[in-house]
Each structure stands twice: as structure tokens, then as C-alpha cells.
């Protein structure tokens, strides 16, 4: 067999190199986006959805800044979109400090 088998080091890395920081940011952004999106459907969970959405937006933005491959950027955009929807709906239902302060 003349061809060497290429070992894929990451699900999102298409260049064959490991990207542990980028993969971690992708995973965190997707989890926070899912959490923010699902919890925003319930009015009484506005603190959880708004904070999870805000942190998801920040981690996704930093992940976009340092991402290397298109797969990483695609997954980050999905997580960012879910985080943003959860954040905005959480803000509409009561905000970051609604009912806790003032």
C-alpha cells in the first residue's frame, strides 16, 4: 500500500493537526447555546437563559477569533446563534438580574 493512512486528530480539524483549545471552545459554545435556547422557552428560567446566552456569545466570539478550520467556524456559528436567541429571549423575559436586584 503506497498511501499512508492519515489519522484524524479532531472531529473539527480538517488540516490534520490537533486544536484542543478550539475544540473546547466549540463544545462549550454548543452546550451553552443549547442550554440557553432550551431554557429560554420557560419564563421563570430567564436568569439561566440570559447568563448562559451571554457566556455562550462571548466564548463563541473568541472561538471565531482563533478558529483555524471551516468546520470549527460552522459549529461555532450554530452555537452562537442558539446562544443569541436564548440570550435575547432571556432578556425579554426578565434579564440578567430581573427580580434578584431591584
Structure description:
- The structure is a single chain.
- The chain has about 100 residues and is mostly helical.
- It is about 65% helix and about 0% strand.
- Helix 1 runs antiparallel to helix 2.
- The longest helix is centred in the last third of the chain and has 24 residues.
- It is elongated.
- About 35% of the residues are buried.
- The mean pLDDT is about 90.
Low-confidence stretches: none
Q: What average pLDDT do the residues reach? A: 89
Measured by DSSP, the beta-strand proportion falls in under 5%
H/E series, N to C? HHH
- DSSP summary, beta strand count: 0
Query: What summary fits the major beta sheet?
Result: none
User: So how many helices?
Assistant: 3
Helix fraction by DSSP (H/I, runs of at least 4):
55-70%
Q: What Rg, in angstroms, do the CA atoms define?
A: 17 Å
SS-derived structural category = mainly alpha
- What sort of overall outline do the alpha carbons produce when their principal axes are compared? elongated
How far apart are the first and last residues' alpha carbons, in Å?
71 Å
Give the arrangement of secondary structure elements.
Layout: H1 20-39, H2 46-66, H3 70-93
Helix pairs in contact: 1-2, 1-3, 2-3
Give structural attributes.
102 residues, mainly alpha, 0% strand
Give a short overview.
With 102 residues, the protein is an all-alpha fold.
Amino acid at each position: 500500500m503506497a498511501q499512508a493512512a492519515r489519522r484524524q486528530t479532531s472531529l473539527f480539524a480538517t488540516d490534520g493537526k490537533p486544536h484542543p483549545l478550539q475544540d473546547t471552545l466549540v463544545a462549550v459554545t454548543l452546550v451553552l447555546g443549547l442550554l440557553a435556547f432550551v431554557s429560554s422557552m420557560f419564563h421563570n428560567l430567564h436568569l439561566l437563559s440570559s447568563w448562559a446566552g451571554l457566556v455562550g456569545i462571548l466564548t463563541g466570539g473568541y472561538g471565531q477569533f482563533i478558529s483555524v478550520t471551516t468546520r470549527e467556524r460552522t459549529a461555532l456559528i450554530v452555537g452562537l446563534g442558539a446562544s443569541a436567541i436564548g440570550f435575547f429571549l432571556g432578556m425579554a423575559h426578565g434579564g440578567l438580574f430581573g427580580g434578584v436586584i431591584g
